[in-house]
Specification:
The complex is a heterodimer of chains A (395) and B (400). Chain A is of the alpha/beta class and 395 residues long. In chain A, helix 8 packs parallel to helix 11 and helix 11 runs parallel beside helix 16. Chain A has 18 helices and 5 strands. Chain A folds into 2 domains: 247 residues, no CATH class; 119 residues, abc type-2 transporter like domain (abc type-2 transporter like fold), CATH 3.40.1710.10. Chain A has a 4-stranded mixed sheet with strand order 2-1-3-4, sandwiched between helices. Chain B is α/β, with parallel strands linked by helices. Chain B has 15 helices and 5 strands. In chain B, strands 2-1-3-4 form a 4-stranded mixed sheet, with helices on both faces. In chain B, strand 1, helix 3 and strand 2 form a beta-alpha-beta unit. The relative contact order of chain B is 0.11. The mean pLDDT of chain B is 88. The chains are: A alpha/beta (395), B alpha/beta (400). Strand 5 of chain A pairs parallel with strand 4 of chain B.
């Protein structure tokens, strides 16, 4: 019971301290809102639309102009310009004006008429991976359709019936089922993990910051005395207000995404709330360990930043962790957002329950051990009276 | 003139001393700039998703389906990890993330093939990562096209069309796909060249803000302006400090943009001259930009870390490397050019990955010089403004 009183007392002190300079809290909350608005507005179409592509038309025939028109009519790409030679188009691609171009060689139309199999070339700039892949997909689809159209014409003339023609043009085909993201909406990949990741990163930095300034202002003893000399209560009391605040932010962001933007959420809301809470708790625990071990405020912030800034890559939402070198696969376990991402895919996409997400939940709870180790380190520093002289001098 | 040079040199020396006396700045300037590129090169060393584990549910169990499964297994992208009896089993594997795609051959697969109809194969993709989807699609499509051709030839032959005629019928139009500048479509080759620029941008920006904060923290806001220069030109102070950072970052540029990409075999078509010439306005623009923000907004040493670092993610996105600029709302297109990182990343990627010459990145190069000029004026003006209206502490309530 006494412990709870101490925790609440420290939490109260913490709230008072934060509220005396609310600018950081407000600024960080504003950052979250800004980030959300940014990603929601940028990815509002789901995929980049009307990517500029080019055509090198050496044929200048009815056919090449028709290809140009038809490409322009597909929603994914638009024909930015028709070039007269290859070099010009390559330069345009190098300047980033177009992401891909079709080259229609001289005499194409004649070859089609004579049934000689004309040869097209497709150039795609894959240095921009998303734009390159998408424009390639459009061009390739266009190519398939053109091939099919020519085949159908010829087979019709040979007297085949429609059903038989389809059997020859397309003997096998895929029925693709993109589970729970049938629109291949890029925003769903990005925002469901990136926004919690940013909030967790801010929670991590903020936690390191509030401990670091106690050290910087030489008020560590005062803080721990408030908790009756119990470092664990002091730690928990310090965490509590921020845990609640940042959990609230993650839940709010998730709520907007799943309710208003209709991102897929198959499983229960309860698990998402649990995961959000544990994500923040785990990030804070990591911050406490770093802040307890390092001797001064600048170093604490520097190390926390270096650790935290890698969380975006190691969460595996963009490039899968499973394809990284083994060392980094293990390293990614040190990042709470990795576990959160796995929970989200299991709950949000596959609608799973506790029976499959328990390893990740356990891993996030285990981050609490880091805070415990941090507390032990702090306790020893407190008992050694290491700060005493410093504080007396400061007064 | 001599006095001007002396002033600048003095500020230059003071600034260098401040950098080397600050642990935090050393950590950011020298360790982070080396550590991050190395770590990220390690993370994305594999470039692509290879041997993605998939499950196959073969209810048809015919010759064609078996051949199809073999070919799937043979692609570099996919690996048939499980052969399941039914969809339920495969779905369970997918939910446990043991497999990331399921290929389902329905019972009527062989009969449809035999009767010369279109046969369907169900593909279920794990959409938790864009790259799982991409690997499944790429590997699957290559096999599909190959298999389609085999079956087409068989069917045409049955109808008495064979040899060259059948091949021409099968492929009336042929295509070459040339994937330029990143032939394997690797994530590392796409991400890392831009990331190097971003790392330099962010470390330089943070370091300068921290130094500004450190000066303000000791209630010595005027440390930014040495005593005997107080009533003189603030330009000298700005130039002197900028030269100090420029000196420090020249070797770092060389390492991050020249040596590390070489060691890790990233795309490197640009030559050293172009890279360094392009880096000059970039560094200057970042330096003056950071000085402006630091002079006006930063009050404490450790707060820039708290408030600015997360912005890296947004800067990367704003650069148009992922989501092309032309597909962004107008407002964000314009907003992106507030930051030197946008033209720098675009230009540097064109130089290093696409082998562009300086005249081909003229736009980005000019934008960087314009930014450098503009932020030089704001950086100088901010010092003058603070001094003129004695705002060293008055503006603290607005600062972070």
């Amino acid at each position: 019971m006494g412990m709870w009183i101490h925790i609440m007392r420290v939490a109260q002190r913490e709230v008072r301290r934060t509220m005396s300079h609310p600018r950081y809290l407000l600024l960080l909350a504003a950052s979250v809102v800004f980030t959300f608005v940014f990603f929601a507005t940028v990815t509002r179409d789901g995929q980049p639309q009307r990517l500029p592509i080019g055509i090198v038309d050496l044929d200048n025939s009815y056919l090449s102009r028709r290809i140009c028109h038809e490409l322009n009519a597909t929603p994914g790409v638009c024909v930015e310009a028709v070039y007269t030679n290859h070099t010009e188009a390559r330069r345009a691609m190098q300047r980033g004006v177009i992401f891909a171009f079709y080259e229609i060689p001289h005499g194409t139309y004649n070859e089609v008429l004579q049934f000689h199999g004309p040869h097209f070339s497709m150039y795609v700039n894959s240095a921009y991976i998303l734009a390159g892949t998408l424009s390639y997909k459009q061009l390739a689809t266009m190519g398939m359709l053109a091939t099919g159209a020519v085949q159908r014409e010829v087979l019709r003339k040979k007297g085949y019936d429609e059903e038989h023609i389809m059997g020859i043009i397309q003997p096998v085909t895929y029925d693709t089922h993109n589970i729970n993201n049938p629109w291949i909406n890029y925003g769903v990949y990005l925002m469901t993990t990136l926004l919690p990741a940013i909030i967790a990163f801010l929670a991590l930095l903020h936690m390191a910051y509030v401990v670091a300034i106690e050290r910087g202002d030489r008020t560590l003893r005062r803080w721990i005395r408030k908790a009756g000399g119990n470092v664990y209560s002091a730690m928990l009391g310090k965490m509590l207000p921020y845990t609640l605040w940042y959990t609230l932010l993650v839940v709010a962001v998730n709520f907007v995404m799943f309710t208003f933007l209709h991102f897929p959420l198959q499983g229960s809301w309860g698990y998402i709330v649990l995961a959000s809470f544990l994500l923040i708790f785990a990030a804070q625990s990591a911050a406490l360990l770093i802040a307890a071990c390092l001797p001064d405020a600048p170093l604490t912030m520097g190390v926390t930043t270096i650790y935290g800034a890698m969380s975006f890559s190691l969460s595996g939402f963009s490039f899968p962790v499973e394809s990284m070198p083994l060392f980094f696969q293990a390293f990614s376990w040190l990042y709470p957002i990795r576990h959160y991402f796995l929970i989200y895919t299991k709950v949000g996409i596959y609608g799973q329950g506790f029976d499959t997400i328990w390893p990740q939940v356990a891993a996030l709870v285990a981050f609490g051990l880091l805070a415990m180790v941090g507390s032990v380190v702090l306790q020893r520093q407190y008992k050694d009276n290491r700060w005493y002289t410093e504080e007396v001098l400061a007064i | 003139m001599k006095q001007v040079l002396m002033n600048i040199l003095e500020v230059f020396q003071i600034e260098l001393r401040r950098v080397f006396h600050d642990k935090m700045v050393i950590l950011i300037f020298f360790i982070a700039t080396l550590l991050y590129p190395l770590i990220f090169c390690g993370i994305y060393y594999n470039e692509n998703v290879e041997q993605l584990p998939i499950a196959v549910v073969d209810e048809a169990c015919c010759e064609a389906s078996k051949r199809f499964v073999h070919k799937l297994d043979a692609t570099p992208e996919l690996q048939v990890a499980y052969r399941c009896m039914n969809m339920g089993e495969a779905e369970r594997l997918m939910r446990r993330r043991d497999v990331h795609a399921i290929f389902y051959f329905p019972r009527d697969f062989s009969s449809l093939l035999a009767t010369e109809h279109t046969a369907h194969i169900g593909v279920f993709c794990d959409m938790s990562s864009f790259y799982f989807y991409k690997a499944a699609l790429l590997g699957g499509n290559n096999v599909l096209i190959d298999e389609m051709h085999t079956i087409q030839l068989e069917r045409l032959e049955r109808d008495g069309i064979s040899g060259r005629q059948a091949i021409e019928q099968m492929q009336p139009v042929t295509y070459d796909n040339i994937t330029a500048y990143n032939p394997s479509g690797g994530y590392g080759s796409f991400f890392l060249p831009a990331l190097m620029v971003l790392v330099m941008h962010q470390t330089l920006f943070l370091g300068i803000c921290i130094l500004a904060g450190a000066a303000n923290e000791h209630r010595r806001s005027l440390v930014l302006i040495p005593p005997h220069l107080r009533n003189r030109s603030f330009r000298h102070v700005t130039v002197g400090r900028a030269l100090a950072y420029l000196t420090l970052y020249t070797p770092i540029t060389l390492v991050d943009l020249w040596f590390i990409p070489r060691w890790f075999h990233l795309p490197q078509l640009g030559n050293l001259y172009n890279i360094m010439v392009f880096a000059l306005p970039f560094l200057l623009a970042v330096i003056f930009f950071a000085m402006t923000i630091g002079n006006i907004f930063v009050r404490r040493k450790i707060t820039p870390m708290l408030c600015f670092v997360f912005f890296s993610v947004i800067l990367f996105f704003l650069s148009g490397m992922v989501w092309p600029h032309c597909a962004m709302p107008r407002f964000w297109q314009a907003f992106a050019f507030v930051f030197p990182s946008t033209p720098a990343m675009q230009g540097m990627v064109k130089i290093t990955s696409m082998g562009a010459e300086l005249h081909e990145v003229r736009f980005e190069y000019l934008v960087l010089w314009v930014q450098a000029g503009f932020y030089f004026i704001t950086a100088t003006f901010s010092l003058w403004f603070i001094k003129r209206y004695k705002l060293y502490n008055a503006m603290n309530s607005l600062k972070i």
